[in-house]
């Protein structure tokens, strides 16, 4: 049985970030800044509520008679109680014989073209511990992109506008960045386990390192670009963020509407149609929040029974990073053209190039992960380099298409004029073939 380290890391990040947010909010109130006080408090408490709801929903506490646990969740102590329960299960596993044991079958990732099926006994304690890991993984994603990401953006904006970085604010921003990167990492691991559910997936330390560097560069660059743009064009940041958010929010619903599939009914048996709709809206809300700051490795597909697409869509990923790079470059250009006296002592051209280079570094580590460090890369139908080459060939073909159509039109125009020449040449060829046939028959 694996040590529940992910549960402990999620709890430590959750408690430390929440505590730092409350302390910083109180400092803003004491300094006479009510706006920063309430915004910091809102960004801290809203994800706390959503984390409690997700833990209650995954453990199905509403349908079970556990009033004390529900009360602790109302007091925002749910993650602490769940962590204690997970470690209690881990340290008491094996002392008492499990009455309920199930057998799971998983395939090994192919090695040298050979794959072996593995049977494993899963007891009740291990099944409960897996539920705790899954619940904390999803809670970490919610905390990261609905709480830590807006919080990091807000605090960096305050630093830019005040032209100072205090120790408390810098520690809080570092904790928020670590929380976002960890949430993105858990999102990647969840995507791998969902897509390759039939295989025994083992993620190596090199893969964790690549994902960490990829997500760190991507998220830090994205947040900095949004803050710089909003510091000089405050009104225009709202259309940019709303277009991003609602574009990703409605994208799964548009695909679902075009597929003409029936409405999903198998999310939870106790849910009515209204409850199912609310859950789907919250899922797409989280999906949009993730894509606002980085590429979501999990692709929502509402017409799928699991609500998650299990296909590896390289073209969608390529399109996302291409458009995001163009958008970041455009926002930085607008910031550079409209910069104010705040950036008097900042080398703006160098900062411009560093941010673009940082996003390129994120793409580089992403390519390294999918090409060399992905635990299931041998199961890919095509590698990411082949997908990029096919995308480039497609763009090259689209570029060459007008020229080829012009050549075909010219050939069609020239054909009626050269009809006689074509007929005469065909007659000459036929006569030559007839002469060769006669000479061959005479020699025989």
Task: Characterise this structure.
With 444 residues, this protein is mostly helical. It has helices spanning 5-30, 34-59, 67-74, 78-92, 124-162, 167-195, 205-232, 237-259, 273-293, 314-337, 348-373, 384-417, 419-443; strands at 101-107, 117-123. It has a two-stranded antiparallel sheet. Helix 1 (5-30) runs antiparallel to helix 6 (167-195) and helix 7 runs antiparallel to helix 11. It starts with a helix and ends with a helix. The relative contact order is 0.08.
Keywords:
single chain, 444 residues, mainly alpha, two-stranded antiparallel ribbon, 13 helices, 2 strands, globular, disordered C terminus
Oligomeric form: single chain
Average per-residue pLDDT, rounded, comes to 79
Count of helix runs: 13
Q: Which geometry do the CA atoms define?
A: globular
Q: Indicate the structural class.
A: mainly alpha
The largest sheet has its strands arranged as 1-2
The tally of beta strands, per DSSP, is: 2
For the record, give the distance between the C-alpha atoms at the N and C termini, rounded to a whole number: 86 Å
Low-pLDDT segments:
403-444
What profile does the largest beta sheet have? Answer: 2 strands, antiparallel
How much helicity do the residues have?
over 70%
Succession of helices and strands: HHHHEEHHHHHHHHH
Radius of gyration: 29 Å
């Amino acid at each position: 049985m694996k040590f529940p380290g992910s549960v402990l890391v999620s709890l430590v990040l959750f408690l430390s970030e929440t505590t730092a947010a409350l302390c910083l909010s109180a400092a803003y109130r004491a300094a006479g800044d009510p706006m920063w006080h309430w915004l910091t408090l809102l960004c801290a408490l809203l994800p706390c509520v959503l984390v409690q709801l997700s833990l209650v929903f995954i453990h199905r506490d509403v349908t079970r008679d556990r009033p004390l646990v529900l009360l602790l969740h109302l007091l925002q102590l749910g993650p602490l109680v769940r962590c204690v329960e997970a470690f209690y299960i881990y340290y008491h596993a094996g002392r008492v014989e499990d009455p309920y044991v199930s057998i799971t079958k998983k395939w090994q990732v192919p090695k040298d073209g050979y794959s072996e099926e593995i049977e494993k006994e899963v007891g009740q304690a291990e099944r409960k511990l897996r539920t705790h890991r899954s619940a904390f993984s999803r809670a970490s994603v919610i905390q990261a992109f609905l709480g830590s990401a807006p919080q990091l953006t807000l605090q960096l904006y305050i630093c830019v506008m005040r032209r100072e970085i205090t120790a408390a604010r810098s520690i809080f921003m570092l904790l928020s960045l670590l929380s976002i990167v960890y949430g993105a990492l858990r999102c990647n691991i969840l995507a791998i386990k969902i897509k390759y559910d039939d295989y025994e997936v083992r993620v190596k330390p090199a893969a964790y390192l690549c994902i960490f560097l990829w997500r760190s560069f991507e998220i830090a660059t994205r947040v900095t670009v949004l803050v710089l743009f909003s510091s000089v064009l405050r009104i225009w940041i709202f259309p940019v963020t709303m277009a991003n958010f609602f574009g990703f929010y409605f994208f799964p619903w548009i695909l679902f509407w075009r597929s003409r599939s029936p409405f999903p009914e198998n999310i939870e048996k106790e849910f009515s149609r209204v409850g199912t709709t609310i859950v789907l809206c919250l899922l797409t809300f989280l999906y949009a929040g993730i894509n606002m700051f980085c590429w979501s490795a999990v692709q929502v597909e509402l017409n799928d029974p699991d609500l998650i697409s299990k296909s590896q869509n390289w073209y969608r990923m390529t399109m996302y990073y291409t458009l995001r790079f163009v958008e970041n470059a455009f926002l930085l250009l607008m910031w550079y053209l409209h910069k104010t006296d705040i950036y008097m002592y900042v080398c703006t051209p160098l900062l411009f190039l560093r941010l673009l280079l940082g996003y390129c570094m994120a793409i580089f580590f992403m390519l390294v992960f999918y090409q060399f460090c992905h635990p299931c890369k041998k199961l890919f139908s095509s590698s990411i380099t082949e997908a990029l080459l096919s995308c480039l060939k497609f763009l090259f073909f689209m570029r060459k298409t007008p020229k080829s159509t012009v050549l075909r039109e010219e050939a069609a125009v020239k054909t009626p004029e050269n009809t006689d020449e074509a007929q005469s040449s065909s007659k000459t060829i036929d006569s030559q073939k007839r002469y060769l046939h006669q000479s061959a028959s005479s020699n025989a």
